[in-house]
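fwd from M.: "can u put these together and see what the complex looks like"

so here's what she sent:
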Amino acid sequence: MITTTDLTKVYRSRGREVTALDGVDLHVREGEVYGVVGQSGAGKSTLIRCVNLLERPTSGTVTVAGQDLTALAGRGQGAGSALRRARSRIGMVFQHFNLLSSRTVRDNVELPLEILGVSGKERTRKALELLELVGLGDKAKAYPAQLSGGQKQRVGIARALAGDPKVLLSDEATSALDPETTRSILQLLRDLNEQLGLTVLLITHEMDVVKRICDSAALMRDGRIVESGKVTELLATPGSELAQELFPVGGVPSGEDRTVVDLTFQGEAATKPVISQLSRTYNIDISILGAAMDTVGGHQVGRMRIELPGRFEENVVPIGFLREQGLQVDVAAIADGPRANPTPLLKEGAK
Amino acid sequence: MTWSEMEPLLEQACWDTLYMVGWSALIAVVGGLPLGVLLVLTDRGGVLQNVVVNKVLGQIVNIARSMPFIILMVALISFTRAIVGTTIGPEAAIVPLAIGAIPFYARLVETSVREVDGGLVEAVQSMGGSTWTVVRKVLLPESLPALISSATTTVVALIGYSAMAGTVGAGGLGDLAVRYGYMRFETELMWITVAILALVISVIQFAGDLAARGLSHRGRSSVAPRLRLLRGGAPRAGKPAPAPEPRTAPAELESAEPTKVL
């Protein structure tokens, strides 16, 4: 649905060049919720703004719903109107809502319809219908200044849907909202994705957003996509940075001669009493250094860092047992000794 | 001088002032609005970024803004003759008044329009809106309260400028105060003129503030500080700021103080 190939964006200012995007290949399938995560300055915002050509990429192509937008972005009047038509079929939601303060909620939702040239009556009908859909049917006559943050974002979403888009871009839509409101807005996005078959590309720095609604995710750093794929597959990928970010399991081994193992539970395995079985079967003491459990895309997923006594060589059999149970097992820091930090951790940023 | 002598003079002067200020304010708004919007659009990072056009327009506005009005009036005499066919009377005063006020209002418009959140422009662009849509649906409606405040400031400034219109025999309240009050020591008439001017300016300011506030839906945050500045500014005949950036807005407002009239 959305494909970018070798997308590059270089900002030039006063002789200095800043590469915001460095050959980004993104592929978003139809009907999925795709999350792009990364620290501030990783190029997420530039990426999403390149998708509807609010930023003109320096090189590379952007294709949305089979249409090559970069080809439309040439100079000249005809090209401009073709690009504007294409944009009107891509909804966009913003971090700071960007509602017109001089218009009522209903008039804000009507704005894209005015641009599309829809007649007055039809506009009103559609706007009220959309407000009903996002749960703000009673606020049509209010002004944005009278709404709470979550309500404003609902208006923003209704407005983004006015042009019947197939694709919704969300630029940190929940980052200015409190956790409770964030959850309800994410739920709304998920519902819209399911009810309307809407493809959603969202960027965020909150890992929780990815956990909650994303089918697929990509991790950006320094203008590049470091990792991407379906969230469930990423979790099953040994040494995946995204998996580590989604389920951060810390914990330093208690001493020498210990084997540290990271386990990832998914589906069936998540419900089995694996640890106690391991302990009983092999008569070993297991310490849990860190653990995280959550639901991702309706599946129970967990990660756990455990410590087994003895070196790796002594623990080959128990580790084999864990693998047999259908768990994904990453043995950390075999060569470096127990003190080294086994998995490369991201610095701050994504929480 | 008795009241019956003064009355027709005052009445005529009032009409002259109203006539001059009304027309020149109208022309200033019609001319200054697009100019101010263009200054924002062509600026760096604007929708129609064009550094050359922006610099040229900005320079023209700066020169016109820094010209003392009385000199502008004299300098424009031949131009005035070409336009209205005479260099004497209220019609002749309207031309330099309007030309002086266009860049004045344009700068105020520029400052007001620049205040509009860039995110709104982006939102409308993402909906497929053209530059014209951006101007019509975002920049103008969102800055309307500030545009009205600016127009009020311009009208008040024009009343000040119109006092100098007597130089070209245009009459008006300012001219009356100078000719009778100052030159003929009719102190009483002068004070009446002053009172009328004060009253007119207060009414205009009040109406402008009321309209601006009525149109603002952003709560009290955005427009209120501006209004307070207008009302509470110390009466100093400030020199027009040479290159007003958004931040120097208060300086610009000061230059519109009614003191000049007196």
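replying to her w this: The CA atoms of residues 167 and 199 of chain A lie 5 Å apart.
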